[in-house]
């Protein structure tokens, strides 16, 4: 077998210092924000423990084969994604370019989320926490009305952090505080990537291990909080009947897929720096299993804390102090005659004597623990609204807030490494940008970080959050699925399972067993195609709309569902199509080139065929 | 004479009745929660306390208008309930049938709110004037918001790191170019060996490429 496309660099390819760095980097790339704020939510809404069944099936038949494949081809062909796919087949060169484009678009919005995390982190040093109380209004006669109508936590997120507008069409101007947080986030990413895998390898010692430490601390603390068991029971109680719903299987498959960060090109880039004879099968299984285990491990403290929050909200509601006041004031009963203890007795008496008046009182609240437990959220809602509210109630809130946001930042940062490396490595291999320092001063990393930062300024506008939602729903989903389908079909059928098997034999010393071969050839491509089609159908069924934060909405503080305007819809379609358009374009281009070459005479010598030597090459 | 006085008094009292009404547009409702505020040390609300209240309000009006003609009789109270809540209106000391404007009453109360509260050992939330929101104390606003300080620390550290790494790269490159210059000079000098100088140039060996300044170690 011939090693195709070996570039004749003057310098060697950079190498990992040791295997631990490589594994930590891959794990850090795979373990990201989604493990903490998407998986527990899915577990909760899809019947708790029962969700693990489709999740694990998807891991074994979809996630691990894809992961193993990417690590293997990167390690064997020793190039970034563009070079790898050009080597596998010139017609598949577009897949590498797609990987790069998707990585770029995802990197731009993902780091904006990290900028938000940084903003909360900076504010966690304040005493008392700024999201625990409403600010006063202009003439100091009361609290700010928008804050009173919603909650202080919501107000801090929507007004003081994002300063969000009521509609995606209203852009307003960039928020200066967000711009400087964004600059900080990109500077941190840049300094960690400044010398390529030298600095990445050192940074991941911290960024990949810190989340586990913090999760353990939170676990210990959370389990001692009252109400923790409510949350855990609620999370893990299996409801096997939910498995009948096909949406559950679809969400499990997509969650595994996006969680493992395949099809970004970052994993290919990382494994290309490995020595050739490295057991990538063990690496792949390790990374995949650790990623899923982390999701499970993270969901325990998250839900314990959410249970605690539900319990304390319920207790506050039960305290009924507000209800006591309402009754006392309305019926002019002597002060402190109605107390929390005899409230029910009084309520019964008043209800019997003046039923009309009692039912007209709007401020009487009924309390139900289940409704508080159902107030779950995923994504930014979980981190910045629900969790921050829970942290206020915990004693020593600053410490917990600081720990939580540092953990989120490390999780996101290690994922950013893979995303940016997925862009920079192929560009360096193609010699489009200068190499990493210490060779050059202005490197590919600085160019990519600068351009991404400038593009991300869009997300600091008033409508920025709406755009981040668009990017995360549409860029980070369908294009990746399409790329993955092409990847697995390309390796299994175009590169050939026989050749791939021999490559693996060379690298690990044994051929892939029947399970891997069956997965790569039949099961995974079928699963992926099914997931892609189902996903597109589900998305296409409803006209896309978004939840807008509109203080003038009649049902405020509920968010108002608005449909996307046409021009936004056009941008969405563009975002889905643009990354993957390069696949057919490059294939077409090569076809035309090949056709033209065949038409002209074969004067150009083929550098791979040297007629000076007879006989076969091994 | 007596009859006339009686008649006038009755007329006066009859006329004053409609001035203070529940839900009147020129008065305010007061709600007092003594037990909530003082717990065990709560005093009982009686006529004397009401007298003190009227006197305090008269004081507030005096202070606001800077006149010394308001009296306890200028404050009319009605619709008392066991909650301890009641309505009051303020009449002008010159003309007993003319009410003082609601806005003036509000401003007067606002001005002396703290004194009124202190007279009864109560607070803004336990001595409520329905319709007159309390003025909250301005929150403590430090000159630099604390988050900017943390941001400055983090950004400063990161920038220092970036500049440090870039500078060390530049220095390394300068050091390398200096070494290369030294090597070239040594080659040009072509001595040391003591052998005849003409042969030191040697024959140029084309097997080795010329453009590699640095050989791999």
UniProtKB/TrEMBL annotation, chain A:
Membrane topology designation: Multi-pass membrane protein
GO MF terms held by the record: metal ion binding; symporter activity
Alphabetical UniProt keywords: Glycoprotein, Membrane, Metal-binding, Sodium, Symport, Transmembrane, Transmembrane helix, Transport
Keyword presence, Nucleotide-binding: no
SUPFAM superfamilies linked to this entry: SNF-like (SSF161070)
TM segment ranges: 20-39, 45-68, 89-122, 176-197, 209-236, 256-273, 285-306, 399-420, 441-462, 474-495, 515-538, 567-592
GO-annotated biological processes: amino acid transport; sodium ion transmembrane transport
Binding-site residues, Na(+): 28, 30-31, 35, 259, 291, 411, 415
Official protein name in the record: Transporter
Gene responsible for this protein: SLC6A18
Automatic annotation (TrEMBL), chain B:
Compartment annotation: Cell membrane
Signal peptide: 1-16
Keyword hit for Glycoprotein: yes
InterPro entries named among the record's database cross-references: Collectrin, Collectrin_dom
Superkingdom, taxonomy of origin: Eukaryota
Membrane topology category: Single-pass type I membrane protein
GO BP annotations, alphabetical order: positive regulation of amino acid transport
CC per GO annotation: extracellular exosome; plasma membrane
Regions crossing the membrane: 147-167
Ranges of residues in domain Collectrin-like: 24-217
Keywords of this entry: Cell membrane, Glycoprotein, Membrane, Phosphoprotein, Signal, Transmembrane, Transmembrane helix
Residues forming coiled coils: none
Keyword field contains NADP: no
Protein name: Collectrin, amino acid transport regulator
Protein's organism: Myripristis murdjan (pinecone soldierfish)
Gene (name only): cltrn
């Amino acid at each position: 077998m011939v090693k195709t496309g070996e570039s004749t660099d003057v310098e060697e390819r950079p190498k990992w210092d040791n295997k631990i760095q490589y594994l930590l980097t891959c794990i850090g790339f795979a373990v990201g924000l989604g493990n903490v704020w998407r998986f527990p939510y899915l577990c909760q809404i899809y019947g708790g423990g029962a969700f693990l069944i489709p999740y694990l099936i998807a891991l074994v038949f979809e996630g691990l084969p894809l992961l193993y494949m990417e690590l293997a081809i990167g390690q064997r062909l020793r190039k970034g994604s563009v070079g790898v796919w050009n080597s596998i087949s010139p017609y598949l060169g577009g897949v590498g370019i797609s990987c790069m484009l998707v990585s770029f678009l995802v990197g731009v919005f993902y780091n904006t989320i990290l900028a938000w995390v940084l903003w909360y982190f900076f504010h966690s040093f304040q005493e008392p926490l700024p999201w625990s109380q409403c600010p006063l209004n202009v003439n100091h006669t009361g609290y700010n009305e928008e804050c009173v109508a919603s909650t202080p936590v919501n107000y801090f997120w929507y007004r003081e952090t994002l300063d969000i507008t009521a509609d995606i069409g209203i852009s307003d101007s960039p928020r200066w505080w967000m711009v400087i947080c964004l600059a900080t986030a990109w500077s941190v990413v840049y300094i960690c990537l400044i010398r390529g895998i030298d600095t990445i390898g050192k940074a991941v010692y911290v960024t990949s291990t810190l989340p586990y430490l913090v999760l353990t601390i939170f676990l210990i603390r959370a389990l001692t909080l009252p109400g923790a068991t409510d949350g855990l029971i609620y999370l893990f109680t299996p409801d096997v009947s939910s498995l009948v719903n096909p949406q559950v299987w679809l969400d499990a498959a997509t969650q595994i897929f996006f969680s493992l960060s395949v099809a970004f090109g970052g994993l290919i880039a990382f494994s290309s720096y490995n020595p050739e004879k490295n057991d990538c099968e063990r690496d792949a299984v390790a990374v995949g299993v650790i990623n899923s285990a982390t999701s499970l491990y993270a969901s325990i403290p998250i839900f314990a804390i959410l249970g605690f929050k539900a319990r304390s909200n319920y207790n506050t509601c039960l305290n009924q102090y507000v209800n006591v006041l309402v009754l006392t004031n309305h019926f002019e009963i002597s002060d402190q005659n109605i107390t929390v203890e005899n409230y029910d007795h009084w309520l019964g008496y008043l209800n019997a004597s003046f039923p009309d008046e009692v039912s007209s009182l709007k401020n009487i609240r009924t309390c139900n623990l289940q409704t508080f437990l159902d107030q779950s959220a995923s994504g930014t809602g979980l981190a910045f609204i629900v969790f921050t509210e829970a942290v206020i109630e915990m004693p020593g809130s600053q410490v917990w807030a600081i720990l939580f946001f540092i953990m989120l930042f490390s999780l996101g940062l290690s994922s950013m490494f893979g995303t940016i490396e997925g862009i920079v490595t192929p560009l360096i291999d193609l010699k489009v940008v200068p190499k990493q320092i210490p060779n050059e001063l202005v490197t590919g990393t600085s160019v990519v970080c600068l351009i991404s930062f400038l593009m991300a300024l869009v997300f600091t506008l008033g409508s920025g959050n709406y755009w981040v939602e668009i990017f995360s729903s549409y860029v980070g989903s369908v294009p990746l699925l399409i790329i993955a389908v092409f990847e697995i079909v390309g390796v299994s059928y175009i590169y050939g399972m026989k050749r791939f098997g021999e490559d693996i034999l060379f690298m690990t010393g044994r051929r892939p067993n029947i399970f891997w071969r069956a997965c790569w050839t039949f099961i995974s491509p079928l699963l992926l195609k099914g997931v892609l089609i189902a996903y597109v159908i589900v998305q296409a069924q409803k006209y896309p709309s978004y939840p807008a934060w509109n203080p003038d909405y009649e049902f405020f503080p509920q968010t108002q569902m608005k449909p996307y305007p046409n021009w936004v819809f056009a941008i969405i379609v563009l975002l889905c199509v643009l990354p993957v358009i390069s696949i057919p374009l490059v294939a077409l281009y090569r076809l035309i080139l090949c056709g033209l070459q065949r038409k002209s005479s074969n004067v150009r010598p083929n550098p791979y065929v040297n007629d000076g030597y007879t006989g076969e090459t091994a | 004479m007596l009859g006339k006085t009686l008649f006038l008094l009755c007329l006066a009292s009859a006329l004053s009745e409609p001035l203070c009404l529940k839900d009147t547009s020129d008065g305010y409702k007061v709600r007092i929660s003594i037990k909530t505020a003082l717990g065990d040390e709560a005093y009982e609300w009686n006529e004397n306390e009401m007298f003190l209240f009227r006197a305090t309000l008269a004081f507030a009006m005096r202070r606001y208008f800077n006149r010394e003609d308001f009296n306890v009789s200028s404050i009319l109270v009605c619709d008392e309930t066991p909650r301890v809540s009641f309505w009051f209106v303020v009449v002008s000391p010159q003309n007993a049938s003319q009410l003082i404007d609601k806005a003036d009453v509000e401003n007067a109360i606002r001005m002396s709110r703290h004194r009124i509260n202190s007279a009864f050992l109560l607070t803004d939330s336990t001595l409520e004037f329905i319709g007159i929101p309390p003025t909250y104390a301005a929150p403590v606003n430090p000159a630099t918001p604390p988050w900017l300080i943390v941001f400055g620390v983090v950004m400063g550290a990161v920038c220092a790191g970036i500049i440090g790494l870039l500078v060390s790269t530049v220095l390394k490159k300068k050091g390398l170019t200096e070494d290369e210059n030294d090597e070239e000079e040594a080659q040009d000098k072509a001595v040391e060996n003591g052998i005849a100088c003409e042969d030191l140039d040697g024959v140029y060996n084309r097997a080795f490429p010329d453009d590699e300044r640095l050989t791999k170690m």
